[in-house]
Amino acid sequence: MRPGILILAGIVLLGTAWVAIHLFARDGAAVARGRVLYDTNCAACHGRNLEGQPDWQSAGSDGRLPAPPHDATGHTWHHSDADLTAYIALGGAEALAQMGVTFDSAMPGFGDVLSTQEIADILAYIKSHWPERERQVQAERSASDGR
Ligand code: HEC
After folding, report:
1. What are the distances in angstroms from CA 75 to CA 2, 11, 36, 119?
2. Distance separating alpha carbons of residues 82 and 60, to the nearest angstrom
3. Which of 35, 64, 103, 112 is the most buried (most CB within 10 A)?
4. Residue 88 in contact with ligand 1 by CB distance below 6 A
5. Could you tell me which CATH class the domain 33-144 is placed in?
6. pLDDT confidence bin for 1, thresholds 50/70/90
7. Alpha-carbon dihedral angle through residues 82, 27, 110, 56, given to the nearest 10 degrees
8. Rounded to whole angstroms, how far apart are CA atoms 102 and 99?
9. Ligand 1, atom 25, residue with closest C-alpha
10. 73-116 confidence digits (pLDDT tens)
11. Domain segments of the chain: what residues?
């Protein structure tokens, strides 16, 4: 092989490794920030391990649904990033009202407490709990959401 090709291959390899490490470090930082924000703002209702409240699919005596899990057993991964971000910022009742749905939700809005970046970090942390298949389905939904 000519040395030129070897040098080129080396550069490509180093470049790929650099990008991979860079992306990994960036995602890792978002997940770490998201974990702290999740524990402070969300864990009380959605569970420290994202397990949700017991019997989350049945309404309580007040007629409101309990907090669902955010791991793969829940339905968070069925929704696009844009929908999740709006839901978290506005709260359940307001987010659904904007879609024309009246719903008595116990999910508070965090728009005054969390920035868009902080909500994205929390979503990165939540996603880090999903198996590959759920991550992929949700990523495709976000990509085709067009918002
Ligand atoms: C006071 C309790 C409470 C807190 C705190 C809370 N939630 Fe919720 N959340 C709920 C309840 C109850 C529901 C189910 C009712 C509904 O969907 O509106 C819900 C629903 C949701 C949903 C829609 C369902 C789903 O899985 O897609 C998302 C997303 C969500 N919460 C994210 C969060 C995040 C992120 C935080 C922290 C920033 C948080 N919640 C904090 C009670 C809470």
Report:
1. 55, 43, 22, 18
2. 29
3. 35
4. yes
5. mainly alpha
6. low
7. 80
8. 9
9. 76
10. 999 999 999 999 999 999 999 999 999 999 999 999 999 999 99
11. 33-144
Q: Is the CB of 79 under 6 A from ligand 1?
A: yes
pTM above 0.70, yes or no: yes
User: Could you tell me the two tokens for 52?
Assistant: 């949700």
Q: Is 125 in the pocket of ligand 1 (CB under 6 A)?
A: no
Could you tell me if 58 and 116 are in contact, meaning their C-beta atoms sit under 8 angstroms apart? no
Token pair 């971000």 in the structure block, residue: 85
> In the numeric block, which tokens belong to residue 5?
């090709």
Q: List Cα–Cα distances, 74 to 34, 46, 79, 88, 114, in angstroms.
A: 19, 11, 11, 16, 23
Distance CA 127, CA 144 (A): 18
